[in-house]
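User: Um, what's this?
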Amino acid sequence: MGQIKSPYLTYDDVDRNAADVLKKHDRLEEVPVDMEALIEFDMGLKIIPQRGLEDEFGVVGFLSFGMTSIIVDEYVLERQPTRYRFTLAHELGHRVLHADSFRLLQVRSVADWVDFYLTLPEQDYGWFERHAYWFAGALLVPEHTLLPQYEAAMAKVGAEGLDGAMLSYRSRSTVAGAIAKRFHVSTGVVSRRLNEVGFW
């Protein structure tokens, strides 16, 4: 299996790519983003559940070898909706950001795919995954739709007589959790987005 390297992408590059996908498919203002419709109807990819994927291979999802499908752990699909949505967005990130690199791979099985990741140099693995995490957050929680939700949440904080700039970690987590419900993502995704876009 040939070795590939991660492309150099900044956070802004990745954020722009996510916004472009939403804009191209007329989902820029959609909250929460309909990930299944975006992937299957707009992008033309299949979502394929696979029983025991995480237990057997230690991965929740992966982009198929020809980049035509996203295979996702069946249990996650059925029982963990926010994790499922993030997995779809993450794998779509690989398709959008890393297609040129992944086309160079010669993989024929899930084991080959896992082996590819295990043998990647740590730095390249880190960048591939970092890009996909950034992309998933930006796709599921776009900055322009996060801003009004954040402002509304902070207005409630202010109405309680609290200084938004002085919130404890626990209070910030509570605020992020309230916003996360609107986007159908985890509290952690919103917390990271608030840090990434500079609101916190």
Remarks:
- The chain has a mean pLDDT of 90.
- The longest strand covers residues 46-50.
- Residues 11-140 form a domain with the Arc Repressor Mutant, subunit A fold (CATH 1.10.10.2910).
